[in-house]
Amino acid sequence: MNDTARTGRLLLVDDDGMLRMLAAESLRHAGFEVSEADCGEIALHACEEDEFDLILLDVMMPGIDGYTVCAALRRDARARWLPIVMLTGLDDTDSIERAYAAGATDFVTKPINWALLTHRVRYALRASRALAEVRRSQASLAQAQRQARMGNWQWSLNDARFTCSDELRRIFGDLELAGSGTPERFLSRVRASDKTMVDAARKALLHDGTAYRLSYAMESLDGRMVEVLEQTQAVRDAAGRMVRIEGITQDISERVQAKRRIEHLAMHDSLTGLANRRFFTELVTVELARTRRARGSCALLHLDLDHFKSVNDAFGDAAGDRFLCQIADRLKLSVRESDLLALNPPMRPAEMVARIDGDAFTLLLIDVRVASDAALVAERLLHSVSRPLLLDGRELVLTACIGIAVFPRDADSVENLWRHAEQALYAAKGAGPAHCRFFDDEMNSAASAKLQLENELRRAIGEGQLRLHFQPKVDASSGRMSGAEALVRWQHPRLGLLAPGQFIGLAEECGLIVALGDWVVGAAARHLKQWSNAGLDPVRVSVNLASPSFQQDDIAEKLADALRRVGISPRQLVLELTESLLMVDAERTIIRLQSLRERGFSLSLDDFGTGYSSLSYLKRFPIDELKIDRAFVTDVARGGKDAAIALSIIELGKQFGMRVVAEGIETREQSEFLLAHGCSIQQGFLFSRPLPLDRFEAVLAAGGRFDVGLSTATNSVGG
Predict the structure, then answer these.
(1) Where is the Response regulatory domain (predicted)?
(2) Within a 13 Å sphere around the CA of 421, how many CA atoms are in the beta-carbon half?
């Protein structure tokens, strides 16, 4: 720091040249840098062009006098706090008061004592710098308070006067809080639910000086409710008497709102706004405790939409979310108080509706008098869900199933009640769409057995317990085998050989169906390779492709890779798909089918006629084969509707250039009728039951011929 920076830059303004010379010489000798001006106009111009640390200003000058110059400088923001020492030969009180009124910092009378002048200037500069530091500290404090949304206030106990900072006034938008404001008026703005707490804390502070720190809310003039955190202390004089109370009040509205948002997100479903599983469990826990004390009853209803994954596949996840929000709104309206009180006998409204997973919802009915009350509400919910939904002009009809568990009849804890309601839901889904079921002990036993079987199935896939059986497809005109369908069996170590109907549904429910399908494809490919290596006649094998497997975007590449690793051609494998599977999302289905065809796979439409595909889509599907469902084959030889449908499918296959296969052939009459009408490829017990690997390989080794003249239901090679 140089000397000038340490001492200061001065502007000396006086019309007396001799005085300016003597004063300037004295000040320079003391180390100050001095500029001079002989009139007020030049002084103002100099202040516009340069900056000074202090001005020595003569009062009486021709033109603009010192009072006018001083007042003009004080109007300039840059010179508002500049030290101005007036030089005056006038020693009357009025002149001194006028100097101070114009904004002077100090005054020096003439004749000037030059030794004292330098000291007065130095002290004035020191005081100016100290004040500047105070202003900087105050500005920094004010900035910090603005950033922290924090204001301070004082309550004088001597005159009961309440004062507060500018930031506190900004927080509450009320300029009257200061000055004429009173503690009572301040308290009147406190939220009603918080007034008792705040009033008690302040009375304790007044009584014995007990400081407090608490959060409450205050209403601002514009009606906003502002959440604040307040800390106070009592200030005492030297004698120990309380003279005032000081407080700091911070606006924590954003923090409180963020906390509430976090708590809401933690307790509610982000999509529908309904309670989530965690929050709902807490509510149920409280309600069960109340119900137990009252020796009452309540019911937990677990609702799950039927086949909602197909909706997401067809319309997209975004549309699916919008459908779920509509369903959530319907469920809330369906359990509103006015509806439940209208029941006979009336029922209190549901405590809460919650979304606990994907398309699963649950609700608690309290004060249930008889179990049938819960069934009435369940039926109301099912009816509400089944009303058509609209989205962008498209209409969709959904159904749902509901499982019901009653407390304390079915369970004595939240966990068991929840588990039993879910088991009841599985039973409802087993009965078909739009069903509701109650829980019972038999259902619980069945659920335990089902869980054990599920765990065993997981092990079976990886531990070599699965087997493939093969049911031939026979050309009824020649008796030669034209292909075979691979059917999975489970060689259970305890239960023996299990048919697909005993575990395929379980695999679908527990998410094992894709892994099971992958095993079937891999096993069929390995057998095809072994037969080729053994020199047996080539045969095409059909495998069923489940919906979850087909819905994989990379299914074509995945299947092709599996066959490539084994070393067989996709042309040796026929993929059988159900009609309903293809209609979930026709456009995406067509893309997947074309991708499979491009890789060489043949495609078969299984159970044709039982679904709802339209001819316009069927014409676009790249299908190679139609399979007439056994439901139309049973009575086909008797004519009637079944025969008409079967013949229509045969004709449809001819027109579209597709092979037609009839399955479920058990009698010679069925076979001959279909053969006579152009369907020669047939499959059923008339020719052969599904054969284990060794017996099927024996058929291959024997040339794959069947005696189509047999009229018995079991062929000699079928067993």
Answers:
(1) 9-125
(2) 29
Q: At a CB cut-off of 8 Å and minimum separation 6, what does 694 contact?
A: none
φ/ψ (deg, to 5) at 602? -90, 145
What are the residues facing 87 on neighbouring strands?
58, 108
**Non-local CB neighbours of 435 within 8 Å, separated by 6+ positions:** 401, 402, 428, 429
**Cα dist from 258 to 168, 190, 227, 270, whole Å:** 22, 21, 12, 15
When pLDDT is cut at 50, 70 and 90, the band that residue 617 belongs to is low
Q: Per 3-state DSSP, what percentage of the chain is helix, strand, and coil (rounded to 5)?
A: 50, 20, 30
Average pLDDT taken over every residue of the chain: 83
Q: Tell me 153's DSSP state.
A: E
Residue for token pair 């676009």: 620
- Give strand ranges (E) for 165-224: 213-219
Instruction: Give CA–CA dist 320/311, Å, rounded.
Output: 6
Q: Could you give the domains of the chain?
A: 3-144 (3.40.50.2300), 149-257 (3.30.450.20), 268-439 (3.30.70.270), 473-484+513-701 (3.20.20.450)
Backbone phi, psi, residue 378, to 5°: -60, -45
- Long-range Cβ contacts of 321-325 (<8 Å, 24+ apart): 321/271, 322/391, 323/389, 323/391, 323/396, 323/398, 324/271, 324/272, 324/355, 324/359, 325/271, 325/272
Dump pLDDT digits (tens) for 448-467: 677 788 889 989 998 889 99
Residues 6+ apart with CB under 8 A from 4: 32, 33
H helix and E strand count, the chain: 27, 26
How far apart, in whole angstroms, are the C-alpha atoms of residue 339 and residue 489?
51
Q: Dihedral angle at the C-alpha atoms of 39, 41, 46, 47, nearest 10 degrees?
A: 110
Average pLDDT over residues 497-508: 89
With a CB cutoff of 8 Å and minimum separation 6, the contacts of 693 are 467, 468, 469, 470, 527
Give the three-state DSSP class for 561: helix
Tokens of 318: 């975004």
ω into 408 cis (within 30 of 0): yes
**Beta-strand pair 466-475/681-683:** antiparallel
pTM over 0.85: no
Residue 389 CA: distances (Å) to CA of 329, 331, 395, 444 = 12, 14, 6, 35
To 5 degrees, how large is the angle CA 183–CA 186–CA 188?
A: 110
Dihedrals phi, psi of 118, to nearest 5 degrees: -65, -35
CA 39 remoteness from chain centre: 75
**CA trace torsion 215, 221, 225, 230 (10° rounding):** -10
Instruction: Please state, in angstroms and as integers, the Cα–Cα distance from residue 486 to each residue in 7, 161, 247, 473, 692, following that order.
Output: 104, 94, 83, 11, 10
DSSP 172: H
Residue 148 has pLDDT above 70, yes or no: no
